[in-house]
């Protein structure tokens, strides 16, 4: 197009330098004055209803009395709107909610800002946000008599988080030290009871059935049978991928099952009676710890009949 | 006094700045209704617009250039949707000393732009809020609508109900040559929960004009005049916390006073999808009533003309002989604060 027909455009902004000066009158003025002092007040209508924030007359044209009533500060949330991505003019730069808030002792509500904590931009509304939530004002340190003297409303305290830490030095005892010493060499050791003949892995140094000390050491292989198991869908630091299977494995030659992970097989294929073998971590990673055994994996052997394991569940 | 809508014209509404000024958007449709009726002068002229959309005081005065205001004409303006200008013209015609009136509204919200280039319309509309309790909070139009949507959902409704309104509006809008061509609702994230972008009317530039006439003059000017059988508007508390946001009592009352019953088509000024549902309930519109077949404001929302377009669309069904009795609704203020209902009949 010829230059004379080029469309012109320019930025334009509209502002009132210094802002508008407004008289607030005796009703709104009283509210803002009390607000500056950290109090919420409503005004009583002729019917006895307490209107909050105060207005010169209620919605039905009913007159108000000159009686101001302290309300709140506890408020109940009515309708609410979750702002996951605040706009430039919004009061908070992180996600927050708008809410209709009715202070205790008032019959009408005010719109204000609800600060439910720190959320990343775009976050979904937290489950705590709901009608009926109880909240209180967070006052600004320096107040001037505007609706913004309340920075936001925050939920009542219903939970606290109290970190606890206590230090210990635990001793494994003789039997467990001996057992873990064996694990550190790739051997699985147990004790046989001199009375009942059962083999306990790991050994405790006594037979819990007969109540007698045990000393006869027995080495058992790292193969065994799944007696029962669970499929876990909640991640665990030791098994971050879900689902994972934890199982009772009865090592061959022992009489007590140990808890272990079962892997190398889809969770849905694990079954009672399944034959498994320990998978050891590389020898250079071994210490005197059960984590030397990574988990158990299936052996290509027929399942053990239920009757043979039914006493070990 | 029988008063009818005898002519209606609207722009092909635009979803972005066309480079035209407000007057350039308006002028062609003023010409269109003049040509349609053969009228060059009107007994009364009334317009609806919003100075804040242009950022200039008395911006409506320059729009009078589109009418031709010399020699001096009898003219008025409302700083509201032009549906209220139509109401003023209707009342003026009831006096009986004139027999025609021109009503128009226009808006160019696309020029309301934040420094970051995004639309500043939600914030601009907040300038209509009270300066003590609401405006200083930074409360924007969409946030307020979301509060109302939540209040409505709390009554037992589902977000899918809102989506269905948006989907129907957009589909109807695509069939309306004057509305915007908007896709079906996608899997949009929330704008302000519980509202998603498709639940909110699009930024739209446009204008509309209507000619009203009385009695025999109306019959001369139009083959099938759309007679105004009732018109009423009601307002309720400005404070959002002083009313039940999940319902619209002022719409119910305006509807009763205007005789809103037995209508076949209803054009509702719903700028957010939940508003249509609240308005349907307030007006007692059954499933047999066709609501917003034009696509409604969710398919084109030229602010300050949107309400007047509802009247024009409702009248169109009667002009074309496709309906006997229709309803138009217009709204103004936050969360359906003020509502106008107009019932038209063949
Ligand atoms: Zn001229």
Question: What order do the helices and strands come in, and which of them pair?
Answer:
The complex is a heterodimer of chains A (313) and B (346).
Chain A: H1 25-36, E1 40-45, E2 50-51, E3 64-71, E4 75-83, E5 96-103, E6 110-114, E7 134-139, E8 150-155, H2 173-183, E9 188-192, E10 199-200, E11 206-207, E12 212-213, E13 216-220, E14 223-232, E15 244-251, E16 258-262, E17 275-280, E18 293-298, H3 306-309
Antiparallel strand pairs in A: 1-2, 1-3, 4-5, 4-7, 5-6, 7-8, 9-10, 9-13, 11-12, 14-15, 14-17, 15-16, 17-18
Chain B: E1 3-10, H1 22-37, E2 44-48, H2 51-54, H3 59-63, E3 75-78, H4 82-94, E4 100-107, H5 121-124, H6 141-153, H7 159-174, E5 206-214, H8 215-221, E6 226-235, H9 249-258, E7 265-267, H10 273-283, E8 290-291, H11 306-319, E9 325-332, E10 338-345
What descriptors fit this protein?
heterodimer, A: 313 residues, mainly beta, 3 domains, five-stranded antiparallel beta sheet, 18 strands, 9% helix, 32% strand, B: 346 residues, alpha/beta, Peroxisomal Thiolase, Chain A, domain 1, 2 domains, ten-stranded mixed beta sheet, globular, binds zinc ion
